[in-house]
Amino acid sequence: MYDNEKFYVSIANVFANLSFLTPEPEKKVSGKENMELFSIDFSKERKGKLYMKISGELLSYIHNTISDEPEGFDETGKELLNIVCGNFLSDVFTDKKSFKLFPPQKVESVKEAKEPDMKTEVYFDMGNAEFFVFLEESK
Q1: Which of the four, 89, 91, 115, 132, has the lowest number of CB atoms within 10 Å?
Q2: Phi and psi torsions of 56, nearest 5°
Q3: What is the Cα–Cα distance from 88 to 114, expressed in whole angstroms?
Q4: Residue 133 pLDDT exceeds 60
């Protein structure tokens, strides 16, 4: 079993450091918001995939905080996921092993058939983000 609390804190710290956002204690936005889905694969000592499902309004806010460009929301989502993945791997797997991150992708759906090994959600006034980790079995 993995530490979802460390996973949550790691993600909350990325949002705080990148876009000066502090998560709310509970969901404030209805489930009707437009959601974007991104994934990133990682390998080496631990191998798996991290998904980020983020509201369009939250992604737009982050994009406007870190970029002067009027477009490029998908690139912002990919970069955010890349940062989250690098931080979560070093925070959750404290053995400080090295990891290889593959380029993040915008995807249409979660492909894994099993339940995630780790899952957390962060809530903000302008939207929410969910994160799912699927780890491959060690050989």
Answers
A1: 115
A2: -60, -35
A3: 21
A4: yes
